[in-house]
Amino acid sequence: MSMIENFVQCMKDGDNVALADLFSERGVLHDSSVIRAGLDVIHLEGRMAVEMMYHNKFGFNGGPFKIRGVSYHDSNSASYLIVYGQTVVPVLATISKYDDEGKIARMSIFPF
After folding, report:
1. 67-96 pLDDT, tens per residue?
2. 31 and which of 6, 9, 42, 70 could share a cystine (Cβ 3.0–4.6 Å)?
3. pTM of the model
């Protein structure tokens, strides 16, 4: 399973620990898709920040995010529909950099 497939599965499962483990110790996750749901941009730096943020996100969301219509473009990018409350947002998630151990060093999620 590719890293982007693992990321989507962790989001679907609501597994913040496994999600964070995909990232390098100083990995960056930038998610501006949440703007479409009236929320602030998520910019996280570091595995611990990813774990803590998604622990809270899954908790406040009532569990895993509803993700539908996943289309994998290659081993580093996927588009899908994600539900934030009552808002459905089409997104493109792209891993643009890995560290020497194959962990995510940089990932961006943008609405389209």
Report:
1. 999 999 999 999 999 998 889 999 999 999
2. 42
3. 0.93
